[in-house]
Give the backbone structure.
Amino acid sequence: MRYTTITKQDARRINEELTALLKPWAVAHGLDLRLGGGTFDSMSFKPRLELTVAANADGKSKAQAEFEQYATMLGLAPSDYGKTIRDGQRTYTVVGLTMRRGRGRAMVALTRDDGRQGFRMPLSIAQARLGHFTGVADQFHQGTAPPKDPTK
């Protein structure tokens, strides 16, 4: 296809084609490829490309290495990476941490049991679900909060 202008749909199609072309090369070199977003106008497109090491010398992914590095500081155990959390009818797997710059808030990154990604859970709830937090908040999350005192 020969382009004379670039639309949003064209940019998406170009990203898909570039991913298909570059993915085998990235895998062959031990890299994870993430190609998405970018900026465009009617005459140019600048895709956003991110390459990360698929596994470090210990065989751990970047997400797992970061999780293990920051877990204890955030009240989690490094071994919590890959554990499952039940929330309602769904089961989620812990796949990392997300740090929101400027907000000072870390959340646990999750993948749902059907394979969908991009879910996040606040640390306090994840701590409760993983058995690291036994305060009053945990009782509320588990549905075993003490009854409210009717005299107050």
Remarks:
- The mean pLDDT is 82.
